[in-house]
Design a protein that fits this description.
This protein is mostly beta strands. About 5% of the residues lie in helices and about 50% in strands. It contains 1 helix and 11 strands. Strand 4 and strand 5 form a beta hairpin.
């Protein structure tokens, strides 16, 4: 069974940092693409950042480029999202997702497996 468990969300002031973690199990981690998506109240879900564990390529949404960094620890089957210079508009539930294709295309459309999400609230 594929299991994705997010952690690291919380309340933070604008300009500060948070690091989200996604612990994965139940699949061959090295073959998958892992992504972070977010959904704010009243808004559509968007792909924030993704990483291909097969070739290390990454994707970032324009809204987070230069502020967020995705990384993967294959030994721990964990993907991280380092979020710096947070803005109130980054407030959302952040979901970890995984896709067996291993490439970044699902970062645009959605992935096959999803975690339950972790809430990030950025106060002004």
């Amino acid at each position: 069974e594929v299991l994705l468990v997010e952690s690291g969300g919380g309340l933070v002031q604008a300009g500060r940092s948070l690091r989200l973690s996604c612990a994965a199990s139940g699949f061959t981690f090295d073959d998958y693409a892992i992504g972070w998506f977010r959904q704010a109240p009243g808004k559509e879900r968007e792909g924030v950042s993704c990483i291909s564990n097969s070739d290390g390529s990454t994707y970032y949404a324009d809204s987070v480029k230069g502020r967020f960094t995705i990384s993967s620890d294959n030994a721990k089957n964990t993907v991280y999202l380092q979020m710096n210079s947070l803005k109130p508009e980054d407030t959302a539930v952040y979901y970890c997702a995984a896709d067996p294709s291993g490439d970044l295309v699902p970062c645009y459309y959605g992935m096959d497996y999803w975690g339950k999400g972790t809430l990030v609230t950025v106060s002004s």
